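Entry 12.
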Amino acid sequence: MSMRGILIEMKQIAFLSSFIFIIYACGNKETQLSDETFYMPAEWEPHDAIWLGWEKDSTYRFYPSIGKIITTLQPHVTVKIAFDSDSLKQTAIAKLIELGVDTTGIKMYVMPGERYWIRDHGAAFLVNEKGELGVADFSWDSYGLPGFLDLKYEGNKDSINSAWKRDLEKRLKTGSVDSLMAFAEGAKIIKTEVIHEGGAIEVNGKGTLILCEATVFQRNPTLTKERIESEFKRVLGVSNIIWMKEGLADDPHYFYRRISGDYVGGGTGGHTDEFVRFVNPTTILLAWVDEAEKDLDPISKMNYERMKENYQILKNAKDQDGKPFTIIKVPLPDLITQEVVIREELKKNGFTLDLSAEIFIPSEAVHVGDTLLRVPAASYFNYLVTNGLVLLPSYTAMGSSKEKEDAVREIFEQQFPGRKIVFFDVMMQNWRGGGIHCSTQQQPERISN
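Predicted 3D structure (tokens):
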């Protein structure tokens, strides 16, 4: 099957998913409301809840940090967790209790297809002035999997088709989780053909959206920029879009990639929640590498060049009212690496950072026995803002500069006065290409007139 064939099939899957959901939601009166009044609030606005997902494979070692995140959130906001199955829900409850989490106040939902990174595939919540809740329902293709398969199998249609069909049912279910979340909350669904993940949405709540060309165009090769912009404006209620060029080098597209030389890693290919964030309607944080550090290693050099270009874009950008932004440069942590061995076969159980040779694309081939430097998606930008809190990742335990982390704390204390700033070690999530923000999704408070 050709790439075009896969994209057509994806659209058919998205249609079927929508049709299935309509059967469940046809009795929901909110589905009859007009789309035009909905918009996405900024993350610092009040929340009714924070959603999390739960990963079945405990070998990722996510659980301890999840427990700490939940207990930190609970005094401030309702916690909701979605699970792929009831049996997984029951084992999760037992694990949370073991971690010292009070589960009595947590709202739990069984949503087939749910996976850990709920921000990316889950509901992107919206509100309107009538006090109603909406959800922007983007299409889902597992982080641009078709494009990665084309590289991996060098255009071989049979191999691409075979790999695409693998786990197709699971992907279909995952693509419906946002609709299930909408149904659970009685929210209006606003669908779009645009393929996009929640970790790549950054809004100021007043009409401006930041996107990254590297991810948006990779996911939507058949759509024009004009079509993509019109859809984002329609479903997110924005009027102004700023386009970044590329994200961080240590957030390469898919798992796993040779970034430069012997440095390897995996990620999304440029999610905004790794390098650029609004902290208020007129102020933007941008990841930064100082000139004195840019030649320390190839990753720092790449990030320096990419963020320098993004800085120029932001300097020339205007908000929805035609006014310039204040841009604050935030240091990236010192580069973290781990020597790994390329193995023919990885352990089925237990934790390892070693990688398999067969998961790399031919043009970036590695060989069994190679020793490489694995790089995590480590960034202070994968943070969550909620009621009275800012949850940030910490890297001092991995050897990053305490002075840098203190500088980051100071920036956040200045930008979010009155909120408690809490740092967490989420390195296990970073090794898998994500962090705190990817692991959570805010449900905004409905506007009451």
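Annotation: The mean pLDDT is 93. Residues 3-337+375-444 form a domain with the L-arginine/glycine Amidinotransferase; Chain A fold (CATH 3.75.10.10).
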